[in-house]
Amino acid sequence: MVLNIAAYHFVAIDDPRALADALYARAEAAALLGTILVAPEGLNLFLAGEPAALNAFLATVKDDPRFATLLVKESHSDTVPFARLKAKMKPEIITFRHDGTAPVGRERAPAVTPAELARWLDQGHDDAGKPVVLLDTRNEEEFGHGSFAGALTLPITDFTELPDALAPHRPALADATVVSFCTGGVRCEKAALWMHDTGMTNVLQLEGGILGYFEQVGGRHYDGACFVFDQRVALKPDLSPIAPEA
Question: Which of 36, 182, 210, 226 is catalytic?
Answer without folding.
Answer: 182
